[in-house]
């Protein structure tokens, strides 16, 4: 739905959302992030042969991906489904959301009663998100054991020193806290594929399927998380899906949520 730019600036977000819900209303898709019923989700993602060859979950082109109302992707709907089914949204006094997705941010902001910190290395990229802070995920400027809940969705595959980032996420996570740390995962690789750090964009695409990725994780990702201290629970998305309307969320049923905790 096209709204002239002059009007977009003055129409409240709640009104824009209501208008989009009406315009895109249908019974083919359900978004559990913004609670809309829709005619369709938009396609999104990047098609590349290496993504297909390595069977990379969380990469490639998805035909039914982006909600036209809140812009959430299937990955965000998977996270939200886990949070909703485990009643985790309101239970935290302090939450860190690294590289926040705008649809998920809006949904969480309405429900989290405690401190909700959103951060990225380049906060200026997030014009629609209030109070962004600059965060280097390898040296997070918060005290030890500070956040009860941390979301970091498809970030670590961009970070050369990913173990350093994992260690710092572990450091700022409170004892008894939870972190969900999602990355693209290959179902075929026996171990994580990494370069030597000198690849150009074309080489990174051919190796990893995306020009700004520096690795493709295999299931040994779990061992990396455990090596810095995390306890890791792997939650298959298909275990969250009930019969009926859950299928209309168009989730990737191969996806696994990596739910990490800290007990000391």
Automatic annotation (TrEMBL):
Pfam families: Methyltransf_11. One of its GO terms (biological process) is methylation. Keywords: Methyltransferase, Transferase. Transmembrane segments: none annotated. The keyword Methyltransferase applies. Residues 112-180 form the Methyltransferase type domain. GO terms for molecular function: S-adenosylmethionine-dependent methyltransferase activity. This is Methyltransferase family protein. It comes from Breznakibacter xylanolyticus.
């Amino acid at each position: 739905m096209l709204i002239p730019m002059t009007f977009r600036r003055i129409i409240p977000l709640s009104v824009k959302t209501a208008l989009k819900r009406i315009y895109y209303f249908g019974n083919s898709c359900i978004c559990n992030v913004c609670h809309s019923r829709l005619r369709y989700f938009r396609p999104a993602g990047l098609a590349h042969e290496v993504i297909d060859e390595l069977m990379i979950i969380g990469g490639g082109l998805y035909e039914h991906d982006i909600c036209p109302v809140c812009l959430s992707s299937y990955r965000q709907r998977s996270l939200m489904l886990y949070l909703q089914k485990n009643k985790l949204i309101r239970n935290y006094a302090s939450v860190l959301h690294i590289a926040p997705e705008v649809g998920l941010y809006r949904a969480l902001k309405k429900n989290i009663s405690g401190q909700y910190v959103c951060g990225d290395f380049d906060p200026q990229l997030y014009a629609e998100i209030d109070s962004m802070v600059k965060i280097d995920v390898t040296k997070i400027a918060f005290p030890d054991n500070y956040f009860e809940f941390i979301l970091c969705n498809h970030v670590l595959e961009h970070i050369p020193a990913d173990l350093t980032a994992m260690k710092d996420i572990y450091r700022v996570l409170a004892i008894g806290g939870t972190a969900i740390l999602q990355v693209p995962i290959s179902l075929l690789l026996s171990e994580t594929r990494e370069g030597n750090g000198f690849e150009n964009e074309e080489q990174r695409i051919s190796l990893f399927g995306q020009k700004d990725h520096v690795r493709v994780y295999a299931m040994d990702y779990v061992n990396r998380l455990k090596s810095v201290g995390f306890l890791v629970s792997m939650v298959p998305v298909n275990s969250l899906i009930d019969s009926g309307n859950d299928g209309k969320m168009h989730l990737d049923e191969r996806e696994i949520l990596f739910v990490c905790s800290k007990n000391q």
